[in-house]
Design a protein that fits this description.
The chain is α+β, with helices and mostly antiparallel strands. Helix content is about 20%, strand content about 15%. It has two helices and four strands. Strands 1-2 form a two-stranded antiparallel sheet. Strands 3-4 form a two-stranded antiparallel sheet.
Length: about 100
């Protein structure tokens, strides 16, 4: 039986075979955008601090290139009919058990 923890450990073991300092490309294996998430390592650098709403956040150094590689023109929102979530949705029913049999 594969659990999320076992899958995560297997992926970590594969990724750790590569020397980050010798790689030109990096990838988010858990991202929703597949191959688009493989980008030049230089996009990240040491990062930079940006304002986001009422807080400051650390972002990739070349955040504009990174966002364009994922979304294209990320400053232009898609039409209303295409504004959908790409995240998983969970329904929790407190009246039913989720214990696997």
């Amino acid at each position: 039986l594969y659990t999320p923890q076992k899958i995560h450990k297997k992926i970590d073991a594969i990724v750790e075979r590569f020397d980050y300092d010798k790689c030109d490309l990096v990838r988010n294996y858990f991202g929703a955008w597949g191959e688009k998430e493989m980008v030049p390592k230089e996009y990240f650098g040491k990062g930079c601090v940006l304002p986001f709403e009422k807080i400051s956040v650390v972002a990739p150094l070349n955040y504009d290139k990174y966002l364009k590689s994922l979304y294209g023109n990320y400053m232009m929102p898609p039409p209303k009919e295409k504004q959908i979530s790409h995240h998983e949705k969970l329904v929790i029913d407190l009246n039913n058990s989720y214990i696997l049999h």
